[in-house]
Amino acid sequence: MSLRFLSSLFGSRAPQSANRAASASRTVVILALVLDLCACSTPQPPTVTPHVARVAAVSLKGLDLDVEVQVNNPNSFPLAAEAVSGTLFIAGGRKLGHGSSRPSADIPAGGSSMVQSRVHVDWEDLAALAPFMTAETLPYDFRGDVTLGGKSIHVTVPFTLSGQLTRTQLLQAGLRGL
User: Fold this and answer.
1) Does 141 fall in a domain?
2) Tens digits of per-residue pLDDT, 29-60?
3) HEC-encoded secondary structure of 95-151
4) Which has the least CB within 10 A, 80, 83, 116, 132?
5) 178 located within any domain
6) pTM of the predicted protein model
C-alpha cells in the first residue's frame, strides 16, 4: 500500500507501521539497485596467443594461410570469434598482400579455445617473391588481428605470427611457376 493511500484513509495521521514499511521497502529497493550495479563488473579484454600460419594453397590470385590462435576469455560470459584478418610481409618488410576470413568459433566463459581460420591473401606485390629465385626459404610475418564479440564487449586483438616460407611449401601448395 502506498503512503498516499493510507494518508487518504487515516488523514494526515497514517499509522507509524505504514511509515516504517514504506521506508523499509525503499531501503530494499535501493539496496537491490546498488547490488545490481556492483554485480556488473567491467568486461576484461581477452588475450590472444598466436600458434601457426601454414600455407594451405597457392594460386595465381593469391595464397591461402591456415591461421591458428588461442583465445583466452577471462569474462563470465562467452565470446565469439567474428573475424581474422592480416597482412603478409616477407623479408625486408615487403608487403605481399592482405586477407581476412570469418571463423565460427566460440570461446567459453572463463575458458579458452583455438580459433582456426583460412585467410586468403590476395597478391599485391608478386615481385616480392623474387628472392625465391636464389633462396630456398624466405622469412615472413603475418601481422593480424582477431575480432571478438560478446555481451558488453566488442574488441579487436592484434597478433603476429612469424616463420619461414619455403619454396617446397609453395610448390606443394600449387605454385609451379617459381
Assistant:
1) yes
2) 444 444 444 455 788 889 999 999 888 888 88
3) EEEEEEECCCEEECCCCEEEEEEEEEEECCCHHHHHHHHCCCEEEEEEEEEEEEEEC
4) 80
5) no
6) 0.69
